[in-house]
From TrEMBL:
The chain crosses the membrane at residues 43-64, 76-95, 141-161, 167-185, 217-243, 249-268, 280-298, 304-321, 342-360, 366-387. This is MFS transporter. It comes from Pseudomonas wuhanensis. Keywords: Cell membrane, Membrane, Transmembrane, Transmembrane helix, Transport. It comes from the Bacteria.
């Protein structure tokens, strides 16, 4: 398969899968809030959707190393399409079970999210090669942002004229198409005979804990994701409940954040030509901290939405640094084994964020919670970011030492 065709099919499959995810993320919180009228249910649902993924990531990493990214991506997205299709049927024919069906489906999709993420991590080096790694990681980030733009925008438009359950049906179809797009892409399977699951899991944790830069990055991601988990789990409530805005505003805000993917697509290659990957990461970290603080202080929906866009723009730039450097510091043969525990550590913040929203956010206000976590991220988090960059410089400037920590 020609390199250009391969890259396009990789990007198209990823975009379809992400569009489906964003459509679900748009429709489900609104459905639950409209049916219950309580932010507590949204926070609990958000937490329950992420807990299974945390448990699945280490095992998904083993599957990625064993079977390769392409096979894992295709089978996981097919399973997601079937689960979501079944959920739509339950919501349609047994409407009294809608909330519980959505929560149950969220758990299933959460379990299947881990194999998809691990499949992408495993496939990027094969698609990009060492010379184009940062640019391909930027493409992955752009696909995520474009999905954030197109998914909620299309969903918000359709929601004005159609039942939100139809949006979930379209998402199921998009999951199925995503699997088809990856047919024929390169795939690498483990050449060594499989060890016991327990030994492979122990090896993955050992490699992570003995890799200082990647371990620091996982902890940094945890603090960032905690702040965004609180934001994402409560955005629908803040927009509709606190500021009294229409559902379309929620969709347009997410669409605006996703539209940053177009700007990111143009700017990142030029920024990388003018500054190091470390400076790009620093710029992104500063912008996301500023945006989160402004969200906590916002007194109206316009300022809140603009602050959200600023935070997401910073997150986009930071993630280019995040994704590029961690792959460089992990041995290719053990990428899945290490990335499974890595994801578990940094995504543990998502269910915690949902629980904080359901408890502290419900009691003292969501914006107060966002502001408190943003300040925590800005001050101690900045020290952790500095430590992380110094560790990556030390490891990647001296490859033999770095490889000793990943073998």
């Amino acid at each position: 398969m020609h390199e250009t065709v391969r890259l396009r099919r990789f990007g198209a499959g990823l975009l379809f899968a992400l569009l489906a995810e964003q459509t679900v993320l748009f429709a489900v919180p609104l459905l639950i809030f409209q049916l219950t009228g309580n932010v507590r249910y949204s926070g609990v649902a958000f937490a329950l959707e992420w807990l299974p993924a945390l448990l699945a990531y280490p095992f998904a990493g083993l599957l990625a190393d064993r079977f390769g990214g392409r096979l894992l991506f295709r089978h996981a997205n097919t399973a997601r399409a079937l689960s979501l299709g079944l959920t739509v049927g339950v919501c349609w024919y047994a409407p009294t079970l809608t909330v519980w069906a959505l929560i149950g489906n969220g758990i299933v999709l959460s379990l299947l999210m881990a194999p998809v993420r691990m499949a992408v991590e495993k496939s990027v080096p094969l698609i990009a090669g060492p010379e184009r790694l940062a640019h391909c990681q930027s493409l992955v980030q752009n696909m995520e942002l474009l999905a954030m733009a197109l998914g909620p925008a299309l969903a918000a438009l359709l929601a004005m004229y159609a039942d939100k359950r139809l949006l979930l049906g379209l998402a199921a179809l998009a999951f199925a198409v995503a699997g088809v797009c990856w047919k024929g892409l390169p795939n690498t399977q483990s050449a060594s005979p499989p060890k016991s699951i327990r030994k492979d899991l122990a090896l993955g944790w050992s490699l992570l804990l003995n890799n200082p830069p990647v371990l620091s990055l996982a902890l940094l991601n945890f603090t960032i994701n905690l702040a965004f988990a609180c934001v994402l789990s409560a955005n629908a409530f803040v927009i509709s409940g606190v500021f009294g805005a229409a559902d379309g505003v929620f969709g347009l805000m997410n669409a605006g954040a996703g539209a940053l993917g177009l700007l990111n697509f143009i700017l990142v290659p030029r920024l990388l030509a003018r500054m190091s990957i470390y400076r790009l990461g620093t710029l992104g970290f500063a912008l996301l901290c500023l945006g989160l603080i402004c969200m906590g202080l916002a007194s109206g929906v316009v300022l809140y939405a603009i602050s959200f866009l600023l935070a997401m723009a910073g997150c986009a730039l930071f993630n280019v640094f995040n994704r590029t450097q961690r792959i460089k510091a992990i041995a290719a043969d053990h990428l899945g084994k290490v990335m499974g525990p890595f994801y578990l550590v940094n995504l543990l913040s998502y269910p915690l964020g949902g629980l904080l929203t359901a408890s502290i956010g419900h009691e003292y206000g969501v914006q107060t919670l966002i502001l408190a976590i943003a300040l925590l991220l800005t001050i101690p988090g900045a020290l952790l970011f500095n430590l992380t960059t110094r560790r990556f410089r030390a490891a990647l400037d001296f490859p033999p030492s770095a490889m000793e920590a990943t073998q």
